Amino acid sequence: MVKQTEIKFTKEGELTIFKADSTQINLDIEIADTEFDRETGLMYRDAMQPKQGMLFVFDDVRERYFYMKNTRISLDIIYIGANNKIVSFQKNAKPFDESSLPSNLPAKYVLEVNAGLADQWQLAVNDSISFVKTH
C-alpha cells in the first residue's frame, strides 16, 4: 500500500471576515487559484488549525458544487459572491462524502475552514471578506 504523504499547510495569504456587528475574524489561508489546486483542495490533510483555511478563487461566477472526496477532516464550506459577501454555507461536510454540496447561489470564492467554526464565529449571509496574497 502506498502511504500518502501528509500535506502541510502553507500560508499564502491572509483573509479577514467582516461581520455585521463590526467584529473581524483573521485567518491565514492557502489559495487555490489553479485548476490543479482547486481540484485537490484539502484532500489528504490530517488536520488544520482553527485560524487556517483554504480560499478557492474562480475565474467566473456561477453556482458551485463541492464534495469531500479524499478529504479526511470535516469542513464548513462558505460560498462567497463576486461582491465578497457570503451567499451560503454547507456546514459540517463529512470526510470522504462524495455527495454534491451546492452553493445554491452564484459564487466566485469558496472558503473552507474546520467544521463548526462558521457557527462558533456566528457567520451570516452578507458578512464580507477581504484577502491579500502574502507571496
Describe the protein in words.
There is one protein chain. The chain is mainly beta and about 140 residues long. It has one domain (about 15-135): Sandwich (Jelly Rolls). The chain is built from two helices and seven strands; from the N terminus they run ββαββββαβ. It has helices at about 35-40, 115-120; strands at about 15-20, 25-30, 50-65, 75-80, 85-95, 100-115, 130-135. A seven-stranded mixed sheet has the order 5-4-6-3-2-1-7. Strand 4 (about 75-80) and strand 5 (about 85-95) form a beta hairpin. The protein is globular. The mean pLDDT is about 95.
SSE topology:
Elements lengths: L12 E6 L5 E9 L2 H6 L11 E15 L8 E6 L5 E8 L7 E14 L2 H4 L7 E6 L2
Parallel strand pairs: 2-3
Antiparallel strand pairs: 1-2, 1-7, 3-6, 4-5, 4-6
List the defining traits of the structure above.
135 residues, DUF192, 7-stranded mixed β-sheet, Jelly Rolls, 2 helices, mainly beta
Overall strand count:
7
Number of helices: 2
Neighbour order of strands in the largest sheet: 5-4-6-3-2-1-7
CATH topology: Jelly Rolls
Q: Main β-sheet: number of strands, strand sense, barrel status?
A: 7 strands, mixed
Rg over alpha carbons = 14 Å
Instruction: List the uncertain runs.
Output: none
Number of folding domains?
1
The CATH class assignment is: Mainly Beta
The CATH architecture classification is: Sandwich
Distance between the termini: 36 Å
* Approximate shape: globular
**Mean pLDDT, as a whole number?**
94
Order of helices and strands: EEHEEEEHE
Beta-sheet strand percentage?
A: over 45%
* Computed structural class: mainly beta
Helicity level, as a percent range? under 10%
The CATH superfamily is known as Protein of unknown function DUF192
